[in-house]
Design brief:
59 residues; alpha+beta
């Protein structure tokens, strides 16, 4: 399987933590308590998003 790279946008939230948006994948948004957690959550969200797109394409 090919490795894909996506740009993410991290936004520091006033109440703490970071919101993560993936502009290339509409609606792909997640949250992390710190930068490391946000990066891990972004990776997981992207993987699930792409898996869902692939599953829908097979139908």
């Amino acid at each position: 399987m090919a490795q894909l790279t996506y740009r993410i946008l991290l936004t520091r939230e006033p109440e703490g933590g970071f919101t993560v948006n993936v502009p290339a994948l509409p609606g792909c948004v997640t949250f992390g308590e710190n930068i490391d957690h946000a990066m891990a959550m972004a990776k997981e969200a992207i993987e699930l998003y792409v898996e869902t797109l692939q599953a829908e394409a097979v139908r």
